[in-house]
Predict the structure.
Amino acid sequence: MTSIAFNHATVRDQADMVTFLRLCAERGLNTVSIWGDEIAKVGEENALRALCDHRMNVLGYNRIGPFVPEYLDRAEAELQRAARFGADHVSLFTGGLTKGHRDLYSARRRAEDMIAGLLNVARRIGVKLAIEPLHPMLVGDRTVIGSLTHANDLCEALGSGIGVIVDVYHVWWDERLETEILRAGQAGRLFGFHVNDWLVPTRHVLTDRGMMGDGIIDLAAIERMMRRAGFEGPIEVEIFSADWWARDPADVLDVALARCQHLFGRDIAI
Amino acid sequence: MTSIAFNHATVRDQADMVTFLRLCAERGLNTVSIWGDEIAKVGEENALRALCDHRMNVLGYNRIGPFVPEYLDRAEAELQRAARFGADHVSLFTGGLTKGHRDLYSARRRAEDMIAGLLNVARRIGVKLAIEPLHPMLVGDRTVIGSLTHANDLCEALGSGIGVIVDVYHVWWDERLETEILRAGQAGRLFGFHVNDWLVPTRHVLTDRGMMGDGIIDLAAIERMMRRAGFEGPIEVEIFSADWWARDPADVLDVALARCQHLFGRDIAI
């Protein structure tokens, strides 16, 4: 049976991590994705206790990156914290081009080298790394990995302990989508499936993602691709939206759950 | 020797077609790309006379599309007008998903069928068709062709008389860029090369393109890819920007020419 998980980012403006966990638990959910900076806000001890009290499992831990030199020193500590929280996988965030530079090819090779180095640390600690390719409109500014193909190529070159997150927002437009989902699935690399929607018009490249059903992504079709590729994990709701951040967090969760029921069918555990 | 051409869209808000042609001629240019709706504003006879008076050649004619049923009836007339203006190629603009529909796969197949039909008409009239893949952030809303790979695949399936326009704004992020430019070049399908820049931050998905040099695209590197692939045509400046539309058109042309000289070298004919 498919289950639903929420990413804390969906309600981050008005619900701290402890509140977020309580709201999820009240709705019968047992899986969440969390953020390092939100743990810091409530304190690690409080965050761990709330997780335990609510018997909540951690799916994704956000995040390692952006890959600036001073950050890499902290990456090991971040991976160890993810392990303490029992995260299934840790999201990578490469960051974009260095300010004043335009050589995307070299930036990609540097990011790949950094990921290879991080993977060695992650394997030692025992956590999995997840590459989430971002939408091409975020290439250069926020990432250098803008397609599932690039992420899959990199995973294949690196071996075990690394996989991909398929976020519909970033990849829905790609004519290679079904092929690349299948390829990741066959390699056992489908670690996460994030849902939201693409609004028309899109007013902001970062904070105008839609609630499932309000945009033009064929979400049910992409979910079927994931299942055919062998993905058995939860559907994770992650919506970066100034509009939804302004609403009552409990209402946001309720609307999202209703939309998931409608889009993905009745055999969903919530 | 490389030459520079302007697309009328760059100064469309403050210069009608006759003014635009005069401004280009005053700067020693001999090639422009034009728009059907701008011809209609000044009248076809005036537009043709101004072209003749200034000894100006037409590179691109914009455009066929979006592919709504009522538009297809007009496509033949549009292609004939492009032929009267001596255009080297006519840009295709597929449009996005039909309102209320989300099936991108079927929309792509429909657009491909329509392009095949248009190509038969274009061959009879004697004009070439050009597919300009748009940025993935415009897929669904403005187009269903969001990569050079898709455009090249389609061209290969269709045969002669159809090629691609490489607009840096739409394709610069793509890890397949060099491969796909080379592929188009080897097939003799590189019909156009549009330059502008990607701004960080990008404030609007349609009207915030940058002047060359103000963003993060490695324009010189992409121009070298085009030349290595055998492209010998002009560098076409096409900037959709509310900021630049608000400036004096003559100044916009002068700034753009200076930027091209700086970025693409001294062997440029202007």
